[in-house]
Design a protein that fits this description.
The chain starts with a strand and ends with a helix. Helix 1 packs across helix 2 and helix 3 (about 95-105) crosses helix 4. The strands form 2 sheets. It has a 5-stranded parallel beta sheet, with helices on both faces. It has a two-stranded parallel ribbon with strand order 6-7. The longest helix is centred in the N-terminal third of the chain and has 18 residues, at about 55-75. It has helices at about 10-25, 55-75, 95-105, 125-135, 165-175, 190-200, and strands at about 1-5, 30-40, 85-90, 110, 140, 155, 180-185. It is α/β, with parallel strands linked by helices. It is built from 6 helices and 7 strands.
Amino acid sequence: MFKVFIPTDFSRNATNAIKYALNMSKKLDAKFILFHGGILPIPVGEMPIVTSVLDGAEIKAHLKAAIFKQATEAKFKLNEKRIDYLATEDFSLPPMITQNALKVKADLIIMGTKGASGIKKAFIGSNAVDVISRSHIPVLSVPNNYEYTGIKKILMPSDLKNLTGELREALPFAKLFNAQLQILFISDASEKGMKRYDAA
């Protein structure tokens, strides 16, 4: 069964990602794992460490309400047995997302994005960039207000150093949606770069 891991902080863009995931999964035999990560305050000096700030039952209730509300809007019939709710705490959100997604053996992480500072993060969002850079699981970042209209083309950037391995990961995902997979290689015009291109 295809497992979709959806982190949420209950913000507007995170809620939109839930709706996107539901619409995307209408033709998939999917299981949803809704995740909320609580950020612990970093201790300073002799300040005592706070070990827990989450109310597990309350968070689960919020997660359940969030996905069922979006399911109603997306006209998606949810199977309660195919939804898990998970909440943990740590000092940083991106490691929590990637570690817990691995723990539940997720096939895909879908998360909302919002603005961030810095050229590198200007178009994606700081948490999304950090999760993408850390994750060994495919990450689909959904811009705020973006609606699912089908996945027809997938662009895969590659330096062509491990194209076979990259295709092994990307092709099954493309086949799920009968999507065209396109490979983007940006060469620096060096001899090594052109040799990789010719070999591919």
